[in-house]
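Exercise 7. Given the encoded structure of a 305-residue chain, write a plausible sequence.
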């Protein structure tokens, strides 16, 4: 596996062409571009319905320069399993080479409606890399809440703020016994690129969870996307780590976290959390961040990579 150390390592591999119709500053599209720059060809991408699909495939045009299959919202991992099984059967007959199938899906298609297919594919042990770009809501259909939406965030279905915590999807995938599960952020592009390659090189089902700030649904100015991603990591809200066969490594230690308010105040979806009457929700949010970080530290100490 070749490590990515400079931009020229990725030169000439654009899998997503310009001309797509994503919003300016779309974190998901930036992250997907990085994924495709890093991925070692050949590979086939499977995407369920969501912003990424809608902005990249308006008939009769396509932004995809790699083989790409669009499937229903709920069955990306099931279709990817079928593609992977077919490739395996062809290889047995000497008719092709095995390759990792890459799913790229939003959080709604991953945490919620595609979860059964995802869990099944991991349990069956298919050779696929499942990537979730997490913009923390169903953006394509109008910013509805998902299981990835954080506590307190305003969406069109939680107008006064979500009451539940974000689902810990990475721990769930680790519990499936996956050989490689990791998180990444587009502001740490080298780390992201190397994780794509590592996840691709492992036999079996692997998972990459990428924070994907959405100016439209998080209500921030489009030039702030990378700053928001960086703050998500530097406040410990979105820890950057990897888990190989159950062993943990924190790739981006945050010994002195930035104040959580710095992250929240950039995004209007959290505006009400900074009002004095909602101090208890802000406190619960902070406790959630701290307890997850402490849990991660304990795991990295008890089961180091
Ligand atoms: C079974 C089914 N239910 C609902 C929809 C409508 N729908 C299409 S995309 C989408 C939201 C996608 O959200 P997410 O996966 O988070 O991707 P994003 O749009 O945020 O990128 C919904 C609800 C659908 N296509 N199929
Ligand atoms: S709504 Fe958000 S995720 Fe969808 S294209 Fe716009 S910025 Fe990207």
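Solution.
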């Amino acid at each position: 596996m070749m490590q990515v150390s400079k931009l020229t390592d990725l030169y000439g591999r654009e899998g997503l062409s310009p001309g797509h119709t994503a919003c300016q500053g779309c974190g998901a599209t930036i992250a997907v571009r990085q994924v495709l720059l890093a991925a070692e060809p050949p590979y086939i991408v499977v995407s369920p319905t969501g912003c990424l699909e809608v902005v990249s495939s308006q008939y009769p045009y396509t932004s995809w320069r790699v083989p790409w299959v669009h499937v229903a919202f709920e069955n990306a991992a099931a279709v990817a399993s079928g593609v992977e099984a077919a490739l395996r059967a062809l290889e047995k007959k000497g008719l092709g080479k095995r390759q990792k199938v890459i799913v790229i899906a939003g959080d709604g298609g991953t945490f919620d409606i595609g979860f059964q297919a995802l869990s099944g594919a991991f349990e069956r042990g298919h050779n696929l890399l499942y990537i979730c770009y997490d913009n923390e809501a169903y953006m394509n259909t109008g910013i509805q809440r998902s299981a990835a939406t954080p506590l307190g965030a305003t969406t069109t279905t939680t107008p006064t703020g979500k009451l539940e915590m974000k689902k810990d999807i990475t721990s769930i995938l680790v519990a499936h016994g996956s050989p490689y599960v990791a998180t990444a952020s587009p502001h740490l592009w080298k780390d992201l690129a190397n994780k794509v390659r590592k996840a691709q090189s492992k036999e079996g089902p692997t998972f990459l969870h990428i924070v994907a700030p959405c100016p439209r649904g998080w209500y921030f100015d489009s030039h702030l996307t990378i700053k928001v991603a960086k703050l998500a990591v530097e406040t410990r809200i979105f820890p950057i780590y990897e888990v190989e066969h159950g062993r943990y490594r924190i790739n981006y230690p945050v010994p002195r976290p930035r104040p959580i308010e710095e992250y929240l105040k950039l995004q209007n979806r959290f505006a009400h959390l900074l009002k004095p009457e909602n101090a208890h929700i802000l406190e619960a949010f902070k406790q959630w961040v701290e307890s997850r970080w402490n849990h991660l530290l304990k795991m990295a100490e008890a089961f180091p990579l």
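Remark. The beta strands are 44-48, 68-71, 101-106, 128-134, 180-184, 206-211, 241-244, 247-250. Students should compare their own answers with the one above.
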